[in-house]
C-alpha cells in the first residue's frame, strides 16, 4: 500500500514537473518566437551629449540630447576611458560572475526562479541582460513579466555569442540610467562628481554602483548608500577583489556628491549629511563653461545645418569652433569692467579679418535665462560708423583723402519733411562754411560732407555698397550716409574687416568642423569672402580710420582706442538721442566692434546727461583688443601696389612737408599750386615751384553726429 501511494505521488509530481516544463517551454517558445533582430543592435541610435570645443581643443559647452521630451546627459566612452577601480566596483556590485557566465548566470537564475515561484519577479539580471533590457527591449523595461525575462535570456545568449565581454561591458557602461538626466558612466561621473570617468576613485565607483538599482531614491539617501558601500567593500575584501588596506582607504575617503553637504570623522563615519540642492546633479540642456552667447550662436548653426532631430534626437557631435579662449576672457573682462550708461547693455565682437572666424563674442551682460544675443540679433542704426563705407565707395569713383568736400548748409527735396525740404545738420548745429578734405571731414565726424559725398557719387551706388557690406538698407535715401541703415555688431565687424584684408567682406564663421561620435567629418568650414572694395580703395579706407584715431591728437574723438605698440583704426557712431553707441575698429589680426544701448531702445543717459560714443566705447574696445592681442604682431598693415604716400595739409588738401601722411593712388597725389611768374624775375622752366605753407586747420567743436532719417 505504501509503495503504491509513493508511486502515485511520484507520478503526480513527475506529471506536474513535466507539465510545468512543457508550460514554461511553450511560454519560452511563444515569447521568443518573434525576437528583435540582433542586427538592429548595430544600428541603434544611442542619443548622446554633443560637446563644443574652442579652437585650442578646450571644451566650452555641452548640448544634451533629448529622449521622451527631457534632456539626457550621456557621452559615449570607451572601456579604457573609465578608471579600472570604478569598473571593478560596478561589475562586483551588479554582476560579479560576469566574466564566468555566458549571458545568463544560472546561480542567480535559480534564485530568480525561486523568487518567481513566490510571486516576485526580481533577480536574475546580468550585465548582459541589462544591456538588452535598456536597448532592444526598452519598451518592456518597466514590465515585470515572464515575457521580458524569456526574451532577455534568449537575446543575452546571442549577444554573448557575437560580442566580447569587454564590448558588452562597454555597452553597459554607456546605456545604464543613473538617475536625474544622467545616462552612462560619463554622464554619471560628471553629474555626481563633476569629473571625467577616468578619474573616478574606488569609493566614487562604489557610490555610483550603489545607485544603479534605484538611482533617484538612493541619491536622496546618502546614509543608506554608505551602508551599501560598506557591505560591498567587505565582500570585495572577502572575495579577494581588493586588499583590506585599499578598502579602508576607500571607506575613509570623504565622499560628497553634488547637491549634498556632508561631514565625516577620521574613520570614514558619516557624521552629518544634508541634501541642499537636489537639482545640482542635473545637467541643463545647454551647459556652458564659457562664452554663453557664442555657444547659443553655434547651437543655432547646428540646428540650421543638421536639423533638430540630429542635434537633439541623436547628438554625440564633436563641434570644433572658432572661439579663442584667451580672447574670449579678454572680451568678458572688458565687458565686466565697462562703465555703461544707466540701464544699458552691450555687445562685443572680435573676428579674424582674413577668414571671418569669430574669436570672441559677448552678447550682453549675462543674466540668467537671457538668450537674446545682442551681438548677432541687435539690428540697430550705426550712426557715423557708416561713413567710412561712404568715403571708400567715393574712392572707387575717383575721390581721394585730399578731395575737397563742402561743410555748408545743404538742402534736398523730401516730401516727408516740413515744407518738403530736408535740411541736414551737423551734430553741433554749426558748420565751417568752407570746403575741407575728406580726411578732415571724417576726423571731425561731420554729417554734411558725408551727405554731399553720397549725393555726388550717387546715393544708389552707396545704398548698393552698404547692402553688399551687410547693412539693411530700406530706402536709398541720403540719410544712409550718416547712419540711416541698420546692422548687427557681428555684421559690422565683418564689414570693417574689408579695411584690413584688401577689400573683402567676410562671412562670420563660428564652426570649423563637426564630427559624429565615430569621428566621421560631417562638416568642414570654408571661409567665405566677397569682394567689397578694390584693394586701393580699401587701404585708403584703412588710412582714413587710422587718421580718425591719431590725426587730432588729444582732441581726437577716438583717442581712447589707442594701444601703445599697436596701429589701430576705427570709427565711433552715435544715433539720435544716444540710443546707440558704437565703436568699430580694425588692427592687424582683428576686426572688433563694441555696441552699447538699451534693449527697449530708449535714449541713454549717463550721470543725467546724453553720453557720446567717443567717451563710452573706445575704452571698452581698447581694453578688449589690447588684452586679446597681447604678444602678437602689432605693426601697420602693408599697402597694396599702386598706392604712394605723400604729406598733405589736413584741411586744404595741398602738399605740405609738415602735413599729415596719407596714401593716394599713383597719379592722384595732390600737386603744389602753380604760381604765375612775375615779369621781373621769371623762374627758369626747370626750377621746382615753391610749396605753400600748410594752412592751419580751424578748430570747430568736434562732432559726433547722430544717425538721422529725412
UniProtKB/TrEMBL annotation:
Residues 670-687 have a biased composition (Pro residues). Keywords: Carboxypeptidase, Cell shape, Cell wall biogenesis/degradation, Glycosyltransferase, Hydrolase, Membrane, Multifunctional enzyme, Peptidoglycan synthesis, Protease, Transferase, Transmembrane, Transmembrane helix. It is an enzyme of class 2 (transferase). It catalyses: [GlcNAc-(1->4)-Mur2Ac(oyl-L-Ala-gamma-D-Glu-L-Lys-D-Ala-D-Ala)](n)-di-trans,octa-cis-undecaprenyl diphosphate + beta-D-GlcNAc-(1->4)-Mur2Ac(oyl-L-Ala-gamma-D-Glu-L-Lys-D-Ala-D-Ala)-di-trans,octa-cis-undecaprenyl diphosphate = [GlcNAc-(1->4)-Mur2Ac(oyl-L-Ala-gamma-D-Glu-L-Lys-D-Ala-D-Ala)](n+1)-di-trans,octa-cis-undecaprenyl diphosphate + di-trans,octa-cis-undecaprenyl diphosphate + H(+). It comes from the Bacteria. Residues 70-236 form the Glycosyl transferase family domain. Its EC number is 2.4.99.28. It is found in: Membrane. Residues 347-588 form the Penicillin-binding protein transpeptidase domain. Residues 661-710 are annotated as: Disordered. This is peptidoglycan glycosyltransferase.
Amino acid at each position: 500500500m505504501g509503495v503504491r501511494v509513493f508511486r502515485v505521488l511520484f507520478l503526480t509530481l513527475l506529471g506536474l514537473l513535466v507539465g510545468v516544463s512543457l508550460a514554461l517551454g511553450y511560454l519560452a517558445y511563444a515569447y521568443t518566437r518573434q525576437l528583435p533582430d540582433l542586427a538592429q543592435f548595430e544600428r541603434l541610435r544611442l542619443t548622446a551629449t554633443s560637446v563644443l570645443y574652442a579652437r585650442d581643443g578646450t571644451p566650452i559647452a555641452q548640448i544634451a540630447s533629448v529622449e521622451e521630451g527631457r534632456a539626457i546627459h550621456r557621452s559615449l566612452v570607451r572601456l579604457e576611458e573609465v578608471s579600472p577601480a570604478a569598473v571593478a566596483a560596478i561589475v562586483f556590485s551588479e554582476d560579479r560572475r560576469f566574466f564566468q557566465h555566458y549571458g545568463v548566470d544560472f546561480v542567480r537564475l535559480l534564485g530568480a526562479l525561486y523568487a518567481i515561484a513566490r510571486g516576485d519577479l526580481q533577480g536574475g539580471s546580468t550585465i548582459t541582460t541589462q544591456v538588452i533590457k535598456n536597448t532592444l527591449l526598452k519598451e518592456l523595461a518597466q514590465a515585470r513579466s515572464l515575457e521580458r525575462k524569456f526574451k532577455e535570456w534568449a537575446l543575452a545568449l546571442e549577444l554573448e555569442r557575437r560580442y566580447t565581454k569587454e564590448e558588452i561591458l562597454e555597452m553597459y557602461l554607456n546605456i545604464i540610467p543613473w538617475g536625474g538626466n544622467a545616462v552612462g558612466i560619463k554622464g554619471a561621473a560628471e553629474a555626481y562628481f563633476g569629473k571625467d570617468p577616468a578619474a573616478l576613485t574606488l569609493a566614487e565607483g562604489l557610490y555610483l554602483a550603489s545607485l544603479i538599482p534605484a538611482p533617484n531614491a538612493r541619491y536622496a539617501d546618502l546614509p543608506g548608500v554608505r551602508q551599501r558601500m560598506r557591505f560591498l567593500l567587505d565582500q570585495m575584501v572577502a572575495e579577494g577583489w581588493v586588499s583590506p588596506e585599499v578598502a579602508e582607504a576607500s571607506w575613509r575617503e570623504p565622499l560628497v556628491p553634488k547637491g549634498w553637504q556632508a561631514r565625516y570623522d577620521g574613520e570614514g563615519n558619516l557624521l552629518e549629511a544634508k541634501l541642499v540642492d537636489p537639482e545640482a546633479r542635473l545637467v541643463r540642456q545647454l551647459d556652458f563653461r564659457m562664452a554663453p552667447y557664442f555657444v547659443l550662436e553655434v547651437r543655432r548653426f547646428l540646428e540650421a545645418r543638421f536639423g533638430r532631430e540630429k542635434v537633439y534626437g541623436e547628438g554625440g557631435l564633436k563641434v570644433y569652433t572658432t572661439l579663442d579662449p584667451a580672447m574670449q576672457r579678454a572680451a568678458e573682462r572688458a565687458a565686466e569692467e565697462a562703465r555703461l550708461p544707466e540701464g544699458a547693455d552691450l555687445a562685443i565682437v572680435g573676428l579674424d579679418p582674413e577668414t571671418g572666424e569669430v574669436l570672441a563674442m559677448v552678447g550682453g551682460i549675462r543674466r540668467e535665462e537671457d538668450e537674446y544675443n545682442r551681438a548677432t540679433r541687435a539690428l540697430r542704426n550705426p550712426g557715423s560708423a557708416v561713413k567710412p563705407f561712404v568715403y571708400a565707395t567715393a574712392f572707387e569713383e575717383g575721390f581721394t583723402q585730399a578731395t575737397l568736400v563742402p561743410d555748408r548748409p545743404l538742402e534736398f527735396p523730401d516730401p516727408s519733411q516740413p515744407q518738403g525740404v530736408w535740411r541736414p545738420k551737423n551734430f553741433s548745429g554749426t558748420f565751417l562754411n568752407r570746403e575741407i578734405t575728406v580726411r578732415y571731414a571724417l576726423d571731425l565726424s561731420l554729417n554734411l560732407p558725408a551727405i554731399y559725398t553720397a549725393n555726388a557719387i550717387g546715393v544708389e551706388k552707396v545704398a548698393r555698397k552698404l547692402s553688399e557690406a551687410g547693412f539693411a538698407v530700406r530706402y536709398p535715401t541720403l540719410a544712409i550716409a550718416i547712419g540711416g541703415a541698420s546692422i548687427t555688431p557681428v555684421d559690422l565687424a565683418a564689414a570693417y574687416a574689408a579695411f584690413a584684408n584688401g577689400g573683402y567682406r567676410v562671412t562670420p564663421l563660428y564652426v570649423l568642423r563637426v564630427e559624429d561620435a565615430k569621428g566621421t567629418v560631417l562638416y568642414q568650414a570654408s571661409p567665405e569672402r566677397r569682394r567689397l572694395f578694390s584693394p586701393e580703395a580699401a587701404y585708403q579706407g584703412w588710412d582714413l580710420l587710422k587718421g580718425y584715431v591719431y590725426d587730432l591728437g588729444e582732441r581726437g574723438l577716438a583717442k581712447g582706442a589707442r594701444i601703445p605698440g599697436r596701429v589701430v583704426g576705427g570709427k565711433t557712431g552715435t544715433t539720435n538721442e544716444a540710443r546707440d553707441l558704437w565703436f568699430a575698429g580694425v588692427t592687424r589680426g582683428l576686426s572688433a566692434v563694441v555696441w552699447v544701448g538699451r534693449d527697449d531702445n530708449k535714449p541713454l543717459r549717463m550721470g543725467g546727461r546724453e553720453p557720446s560714443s567717443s567717451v563710452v566705447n573706445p575704452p571698452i574696445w581698447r581694453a578688449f583688443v589690447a588684452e586679446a592681442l597681447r604678444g602678437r604682431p602689432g605693426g601697420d598693415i602693408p599697402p597694396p601696389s599702386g598706392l604712394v604716400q605723400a604729406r598733405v595739409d589736413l584741411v586744404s588738401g595741398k602738399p605740405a612737408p609738415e602735413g599729415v601722411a596719407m596714401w593716394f593712388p599713383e597719379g592722384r597725389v595732390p600737386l603744389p599750386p602753380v604760381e604765375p611768374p612775375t615779369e621781373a624775375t621769371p623762374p627758369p622752366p626747370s626750377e621746382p615751384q615753391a610749396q605753400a605753407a600748410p594752412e592751419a586747420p580751424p578748430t570747430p567743436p568736434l562732432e559726433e553726429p547722430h544717425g538721422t532719417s529725412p
